[in-house]
Known about the structure:
Helices cover 0% and strands 57% of the residues of chain A. Chain A is mainly β. In chain B, strand 4 and strand 5 form a beta hairpin. Chain A binds chain B through residues 2, 4, 40-43, 45, 48, 55-56, 58, 90, 92, 97-99, 101-107, and chain B through 4, 31-32, 34, 36, 41-46, 49, 51, 89, 93, 95, 98-106.
Amino acid sequence: ETGVTQTPRHLVMGMTNKKSLKCEQHLGHNAMYWYKQSAKKPLELMFVYNFKEQTENNSVPSRFSPECPNSSHLFLHLHTLQPEDSALYLCASSQAIAGDTQYFGPGTRLTVL
Amino acid sequence: GENVEQHPSTLSVQEGDSAVIKCTYSDSASNYFPWYKQELGKGPQLIIDIRSNVGEKKDQRIAVTLNKTAKHFSLHITETQPEDSAVYFCASYMKTSYDKVIFGPGTSLSVIP
């Protein structure tokens, strides 16, 4: 256990559905991240939050909408996704964003039909 | 843009042999280099990291070496065991305005009993 939990672990959705991914960290960290992991591609950073403020949006399509209500919780709201969005979505947290170790959750395996 | 190259993409070794994975980074200002291990169904877990003020770091059977001049760093696993089988990712801390970490594409290591 890394102290970072993600729910759900698996999600299947149609292209017209709206769903949300949840991440919670129990480490007292101040920074949280969303990554996309596709087969045979490097981890892609999507969003970075530092003290609840978004500091990075790595050219992510607007069909992905992050929300960080506090330093312990991070959401990724999904709507009108495409099949190519199917991937493992990983949440991570770190004490600070300046080169601190990132601790990852187990991920949500998303399949878009 | 900035990137991290990682080789080999797959590696098979006999139990007890050593395994070496090499990474090259492009941003000469990078100064933090973590290595992550990802087992099936889990998120990446930090196994060792190194900062630019040292050339080598060891932790039991694993070690990391850093050559800042050549901009490459390597992971060394000695006396490999079947439980070392996993995907290994190197990463480089990019000192941009958002201080983000760039991951390599991963190496799938198989340790044959």
